[in-house]
Design goal:
heterodimer; A: 208 residues; 60s Ribosomal Protein L30, Chain: A; four-stranded mixed beta sheet; three-stranded antiparallel beta sheet; 4 helices; B: 164 residues; mainly beta; seven-stranded mixed beta sheet; six-stranded antiparallel beta sheet; 2 helices; 13 strands; 45% strand
Chain lengths: 208, 164
């Protein structure tokens, strides 16, 4: 009985000429669709879509545009409802990784010695690497705005190398670490040149 | 460096090891397009394939992704990547993309991210490259180019067979 039903089903399918295996949650739409979404904090950015015949800008959450072909004018942006968003993009959205974890260690002025208060942060880093099974950890040294750019790059690098050595002592394998310096280009506290600022003298450890 | 290799024929272990190292490091470098470290696999479900210069490489949690790797998912597959600047990209089933350009050197003011979306559905959340240099992030698709000014978006491409 079951088998007869299956056969009948297959026959009906063959008749419709469109019998392909279907994945209910990710239908292939007739047109390509781009949608702008609010991020984890509810912030909405902007996306522009451009092809040979037109440009469209999206700047509101759940605003979508449909595009038929590379040589077809993009459609008029519209608001997509949550159900359709979930139906089209649910699988991809659910597969987005958790955000990276960041840790900060601070340093004495002009030095690569960790402040006593932040020495303990490295244990937290090791735990995060283990918990996340991370294979991509950045150790990024930063300097404050005292001193010149070139020496600040070197100082940032020395600070990062020092932290990387300490992490290796705690059992982190060298292969997952990338040691970098951003010099004084990324100040946490915006200051004039020449101003010593403890919060800018830091190593940021990013566990991805 | 590799082209200046001209050691006398000595068959000590050390020389043999150096020779192997030189073959391993120099030969692929000259035969393959240049690829940079781009990120790691953070989420993997079902069938997922990663091809590096046409060769299948194992894909698992933690696998390191290079630029120009072809990342594909099967009918039951999904993958989530985190790039080295914190950018997050995920693919739904029956989808494919590659990270064509990944340049993240804040100290030199150098930034670039170009993702080539080939088929299926993808979701994206911008990272540090988007924060430092939003104008340097692009996604190329068969129907046009996306310029991203942050922060989260998704795309689905129509299948070629459904086109007229």
């Amino acid at each position: 009985m079951k088998r007869a039903l299956l056969l009948a089903g297959a026959f009906a399918c063959a008749l419709t000429l469109s019998c392909r295996p279907k994945i209910p949650a990710t239908p292939s739409p007739a047109q390509s669709i781009v949608i702008l979404l609010p991020d984890d904090e509810g912030k909405v950015g902007a996306v522009t879509f451009t092809n040979k015949v037109g440009t469209v800008a999206l700047d509101r959450g759940f605003q979508a545009v449909e595009i038929a072909r590379a040589d077809a004018k993009p459609g008029i942006p519209y608001q997509m409802d949550q159900a359709r968003t979930q139906q089209l993009f649910g699988h991809a959205l659910e597969s987005l990784p958790q955000v990276a974890e960041s840790f900060l260690a601070y340093f004495a002025e002009g030095s690569d010695n960790l402040t006593p208060e932040t020495a303990g942060v490295l244990q937290q880093v090791v735990k995060a690497i283990q918990d996340r099974h991370s294979t991509d950890v950045s150790v990024i040294g930063h300097a404050d705005a005292t001193g010149d750019k070139a020496s600040n790059y070197q100082l940032g690098l020395r600070r990062a190398q020092r932290v990387a050595q300490n992490l290796q002592t705690l059992g982190v394998t060298d292969a997952v670490l990338s040691v970098e310096s951003h010099g004084d280009v990324d100040l946490v506290v915006q200051t004039r040149r020449g101003v010593a600022e403890m919060q800018n003298r830091r190593v940021e450890i990013v566990v991805r | 460096m590799c082209s200046h290799f001209s050691s006398p024929p000595s068959f000590s272990n050390k020389a043999a090891i150096s020779l192997i190292a030189i073959l391993v490091f120099c030969f692929p470098a000259s035969a393959l397009p240049e690829a940079d470290f781009a990120g790691t696999v953070r989420v993997v479900t079902g069938s997922v394939s990663i091809y590096r210069a046409g060769v299948l490489v194992p894909s698992a949690m933690g696998t390191r992704i290079l630029t120009k790797d072809l990342i594909e998912t099967g009918p039951d597959g999904r993958i989530g990547l985190m790039l080295h600047d914190g950018t997050r990209v995920a693919l739904g089933p029956k989808s494919a993309l590659s990270v064509e350009t990944f340049l993240f050197q804040p100290a030199d003011g150098k930034f670039g991210l170009l993702i080539k979306m080939l088929r299926g559905a993808a979701a994206y959340i911008s990272g540090e490259i988007g924060r430092y240099a939003p104008q340097s992030v692009q996604v190329e698709t068969p129907v046009g180019i996306l310029g991203l000014r942050g922060t989260k978006f998704a795309i689905v491409l129509n299948q070629p067979e459904t086109q007229p």
